[in-house]
Amino acid sequence: MGRVQVPVFDEYENQVYYESGKMKGKPKFQIKHNRRKENLPLYLFDKPKTPIEKEQNKSTLELANRIRYEKEQEFNENKTGYRIKSNKKTDFINFMQNYYDSYTKKDKRMIKMAINRFEDFILIEYPQYNKFILADQIDRDMIIKFVEYLHSKSTGEGAATAYKRFKKIIKYAVDHDFMKKNPCHEVVCKTDEDALVKDILSLGEIEKEL
Fold first, then answer.
1. Distance of CA 196 to the CA centre of its chain
2. Cα distance between residue 126 and residue 114, in whole Å
3. How far apart are CA 138 and CA 118, in angstroms?
4. Integer CA distances (angstroms), 144 to 53, 140, 167, in order
5. Span 154-203, pLDDT tens digits
6. Are 143 and 162 in contact (CB under 8 A)?
7. Residue 17 three-state SS
8. What is the CA angle 58-64-97, rounded to 5?
């Protein structure tokens, strides 16, 4: 990956220059590509027959392309100190995990709870996105289903608390141009009518939700 320009020299080790055309008088350079092969521990079914084998091949190819992209990013960053900004090729689950890792406020455990809930939701409702999901693949319909899932897995303020932290991550993604639009817009997660209204769960409640 990447390329370098190498000066062209004659037999006497003198720099060679263009003798005609628009480049006349300018030094000649030879382009050399820096390539590195790396074997990945990924395998495909030679002739997939069942839907499971076909889906496995699809997921494996998506993962291979993702790894290739990340390696190219790493190479460009090491070479020039510049990392290409391309949110469309970044896994949103990884984005949320990075958000959590750098989060320093007191409700960090609830942020983790929200991420865990979303990961479980994707695994159950959208297994095709289990290994890789783009930010723009998260739409309003998915968020509505996610809210329903939160209600099915939580009691009291648990669903609302998890959704509030999830929306916080989404807002951060939108504000930093990681997502084009907010899929949570006007999607509400109502609390149980008999639940006490509170924003902070107890330690026991958080551990139960995790």
1. 36
2. 17
3. 11
4. 31, 6, 12
5. 877 889 999 999 999 999 999 988 888 999 999 999 875 444 444 444 44
6. no
7. strand
8. 100
CA neighbor of 199 nearest in space, from 165, 154, 150? 165
User: CA-to-CA distance for 137 and 91, rounded, in angstroms?
Assistant: 10
Altogether, the residues listed in the chain come to a count of 210
Q: Where are the domains of the chain?
A: 1-35, 38-84, 87-209
Helix then strand then coil, in percent of the chain rounded to 5, is 50, 5, 40
Nearest to 3 by CA among 23, 29, 27, 31: 31
> Is 0.85 surpassed by the pTM of this model?
no
What are 37's two structure tokens? 């092969």
Distances 193 to 108, 163, 165, 188, 205 between C-alpha atoms, Å: 27, 17, 21, 14, 18
- DSSP state letters, 81-144: S-----GGGS-HHHHHHHHHHH--STTHHHHHHHHHHHHHHHHHH-GGGSS---GGG--HHHHH
